[in-house]
Amino acid sequence: MKRKCFRYGTGFVLAFLCVCLFPGCSPGKVVEHVIGSGDTRPEPPPTGVPSHKKNRVYMDEVQGRLVFFDGTTLRLKVGEDSYLFDVSHANIECKRGMLTNDDVSVIYEGKLDGTNTRTVSALKVTDAMHKKDRLRENTLTGTLTMISPYAATIQNSEGQTIVCPIIGKPACFLGGLHLGSPVTVHYFGKLPNPSNENASEPGRYLFDVLSISDTDPFTLPSFPEAQITPAEGTAENTVTPIRCTLEQLNGQLIRLHPVGYNSVIEMNLGDYPVYLPSGFLPGTSLAIYAKGSFNGQDLSGLTIQHLQGTDPAGIRTGEVASFVTGVITGTTANTLTIRTQDQVLFTCYTSHVIDESTQERRIGSSIRITLQPADTQGTNIYTVLKFEDAIS
Fold first, then answer.
1. Which residues have C-beta within 8 Å of that of residue 46, sequence separation ≥ 6?
2. Share of the chain above pLDDT 90, in %
C-alpha cells in the first residue's frame, strides 16, 4: 500500500514540476518535451518564411520580315523597327529555308529592352504562324554573263546584275550553254533590290533557285534512248554513254574525268545540249552520249549527241560524290553556313552528318561538304552527308 502511494506521489510531483518548467504546454506536449514524440518529420517553417523557388523563365517571340542571315546573326524588320538576333544557339526550323522578306518568328528567352536584343537568348527560328505575305514562285529572265558550279550571274533588261545561287539545282540548256544568251531562272521568294547599296552583301541574297534553263517554261528534254551494249558492228550508229565525273566548270568550258580511265576531257558546252538534274557541282555524275567508240583518251572519232546527269533518285548514298567548298561564316544549334568563292552563302543541317574533318568548325575555317543530291529541292537549307577538310 505504501509503494502505491509512493508511486502516485512521485507521479504527482513530476507532473507538478513539468507544469512549472513548461508553462503553457498541454500535458501531451509536456510528455513530448520530456520523452520525445517519436515523429522524426521536421516541423514546417514558421509562417512568413519564404520557400526556395526557381526563378521564372520568360519566353516570348518576335515576328517580322527576314532581311539578313549570315549563319550566326539574323535581322528582322518589324514595321519601322529592326531586331538583330544572335542565333548561334538557336534551332532553325523554317520549311523553305531562310528567304529574304519571308515572315518568320524568333522565339527567345528573357525580356527585350526595346529593340535591344542583348538581354535575350534566341531559342528557335520558325515560320510565322500567320504569314502576312506568303512567298511564291517567280521567274527572272535576262542574259547569262557568268556561270560556275555555285552561281549564275544574270543581267536583267534594266541592266541590273543579280547573282543566283544554283548549288545542286537543275540546269537545262537544250541549245547549249552560251554566255551572253538569254536564260530563265525559276526561284521561290523575293529578290533583293539590286539598287540597294547593301544588296550584294552575302546574307541579303536569300532566295531558293528552282531551275535555270534556256527555255521557259522549264521542260525536261526528250533525248533519244541510249543503247548500253550496242550490237556488234553497230557502234558507229548507236548512241552509247561515256560515264564521267564532273571536275570543273569555268564558263562554257567543262572538265570531265571518264570513269575507269586516267584521262581528262575538256569540252565546250556551247556545242551540245546539256541537262544536269543536280547542277554543275564537282563530283557530279553524268554521261556523254555519243555515237562511235571511245578510245579512253579524247573525243576523236565520236559524234556527240548530248550530256546528261544521273538522276539523283537513282544514286545510292555510298556513290554520292558531289561537293561544295567554302569558308564557314556561322553556325546555329542545327545548321552550318559557308561562303563560296563566288560569295554565295550555302547553309546545311548538321545532324546525322559524317564528320571526317580534322579541324574545328569555327568561323573562317575552310570545309568541304558532300551533298545529298536527292534532297536539294524545295529549300535553301540543304541535307548533306559528310564534312571533310577542304583540299587546297
1. none
2. 65
Distance CA 330, CA 299 (A): 44
Q: How far apart are CA 373 and CA 323, in angstroms?
A: 10
Q: 157-170 pLDDT, tens per residue?
A: 999 999 999 999 99
CA gap 233, 220 in Å, rounded: 32
What does the block give as the cell for 14? 513530476
CA 127 to the chain's CA centroid: 14
Q: What strand order describes the sheet that includes 120-127?
A: 81-86, 73-78, 59-69, 103-110, 120-127, 91-93
d(CA 310, CA 220): 13
Higher pLDDT, 122 or 35: 122
Q: What is the pLDDT of residue 1?
A: 46
CA distance 183 to 143: 6
Cell numbers that stand for 222 in this block: 526528250
Q: Which of 141, 144, 78, 140 is nearest to 115 (CA)?
A: 78
In this prediction, residue 132 has a pLDDT band, given cuts at 50, 70 and 90, of: confident
- Measure the CA–CA gap between 379 and 94, rounded to whole angstroms: 9
Q: Are 169 and 209 in contact (CB under 8 A)?
A: yes
Cell 556551247 sits on residue:
270
Closest CA to 186 of 174, 172, 175: 172
Three cell numbers written together for 390: 577542304
Half-sphere CA count of 59, side-chain side, radius 13 A: 7
Q: What is the pLDDT of residues 186-219, one digit of tens each?
A: 999 888 666 555 555 666 678 999 999 999 988 8
Pairing of strands 103-110, 59-69: antiparallel
Residue-wise pLDDT for 17-59, tens only, equals 444 444 444 444 444 444 444 444 445 555 555 555 556 678 9
* CB neighbourhood size of 179 (10 A): 14
Q: Measuring CA to CA, how many Å separate 32 from each of 10, 25, 27, 290?
A: 19, 10, 9, 105
Buried b (16+ CB within 10 A) or exposed e, 323-333: bbbbebbbbbb
Contact 59, 108 (CB under 8 A): yes
Torsion (CA) 165, 170, 171, 172 in degrees, nearest 10? -160
Residue 14 has what pLDDT?
A: 45
